[in-house]
Design brief:
33% of the residues lie in helices and 24% in strands. The chain is α/β, with parallel strands linked by helices. The strands form two sheets. The chain has a six-stranded parallel beta sheet, with helices on both faces. A five-stranded mixed beta sheet has the order 7-8-6-9-10, with helices on one face.
Length: 249
C-alpha cells in the first residue's frame, strides 16, 4: 500500500487528487496539506512530523513548490509535482537533489494523456516545418505564464532545429509583447487568460504552402487523474528523476 500525502489538498486540483487517491485499492491517503481547513496540516514539515507517508503529490502554487520539493528530496520523501512555474535552473537543482539522494521525483507540466500526446506529435512534426508558434489558453486564475505545458512543448520541439523563424523579416513591435514571448529555438508562445477556459493549447507549424495546427482542450480536471496515479506508482517503485509524463507512458 502506497501511503500518500496531498499538498494543496483543498484547491480545485487538490480535491480531485484526494478523491482519485481514495478511489484506488493500492494507495492510502494519510495526510492533507493546505494552509486553510480544519483537518489539514499547514505545511509538509508539519505533516511529516505527525504521520509517515511514501509520496507527496504537490498541486500548490509556483511560489511554494520549489521549497516544498527541496524539503522532500532532502528528507527522504518521494514527490510528484503538478505545480507549474519552476524555472530551468530550479528543475536542474531538483534533479541534482533527486540523483544525489536517490529519491524519486517526477515533474509533469501536464498529466492529461491528450496533452502529452499533443507534445509528442508536435515534437515529431517539428523537424518537417520551418516555423512554429504556440498559443496556450487558461482560466484567469492561473498565476504563471506561459504554462508549463507550453514551455515543455517548445523544449521538445527545439530538439528538431535551432530556429523556427526561418524566412521571417525583421520585426518591430508597436505594442510591446504583441508577438508573445520568445522561448526555445525562437518559438513564440502566446498566453491567453480568460474566464470560461480551463486549459487549452494550440501548436501552429508552417512551411511554404502549408499549415499544420495541433490542439488539445481540457473540460474536466478528472482527465488528469489517471496520469497523476500513474506518476505516484512510478515514483513509489523507482528512485529516479523524471521530467514529463511521456517518459513513463
Amino acid at each position: 500500500m502506497i501511503k500518500v500525502a496531498v499538498c494543496g489538498a483543498l484547491g480545485k486540483m487538490g480535491k480531485e487528487v484526494v478523491a482519485a487517491v481514495e478511489g484506488t485499492s493500492d494507495m492510502k491517503l494519510v495526510a492533507k496539506v493546505d494552509i486553510v481547513g480544519d483537518d489539514t496540516y499547514k505545511s509538509v514539515e508539519e505533516a511529516k512530523k505527525a504521520v509517515e507517508f511514501d509520496v507527496l503529490i504537490d498541486f500548490t502554487q509556483p511560489k511554494s513548490i520549489f521549497e516544498n520539493a527541496k524539503y522532500c528530496l532532502t528528507n527522504g520523501i518521494k514527490i510528484v509535482i503538478g505545480t507549474t512555474g519552476l524555472s530551468d535552473e530550479q528543475i536542474n537543482e531538483l534533479k541534482s537533489l533527486s540523483d544525489k539522494n536517490k529519491i524519486g521525483c517526477l515533474i509533469a507540466p501536464n498529466f492529461s494523456t491528450g496533452a502529452v500526446l499533443l507534445m509528442e506529435f508536435a515534437s515529431k512534426a517539428a523537424k518537417y516545418f520551418d516555423n512554429a508558434e504556440i498559443i496556450e489558453l487558461h482560466h484567469n486564475q492561473k498565476k504563471d505564464a506561459p504554462s508549463g505545458t507550453a514551455i515543455k512543448t517548445a523544449l521538445m520541439m527545439s530538439e528538431a532545429k535551432e530556429t523556427f523563424k526561418l524566412g521571417n523579416c525583421p520585426e518591430t513591435e508597436t505594442i510591446k509583447g504583441s508577438r508573445g514571448g520568445t522561448s526555445y529555438s525562437d518559438i513564440q508562445i502566446h498566453s491567453v487568460r480568460m474566464p470560461g477556459y480551463m486549459a487549452s493549447q494550440e501548436v501552429i507549424l508552417g512551411s511554404s504552402g502549408q499549415i499544420l495546427t495541433l490542439r488539445h482542450d481540457t473540460s474536466d480536471r478528472k482527465c488528469y487523474m489517471p496520469g497523476v496515479l500513474l506518476a505516484v506508482r512510478h515514483v513509489a517503485k523507482e528512485n529516479d528523476f523524471t521530467y514529463g509524463l511521456e517518459k513513463i507512458l
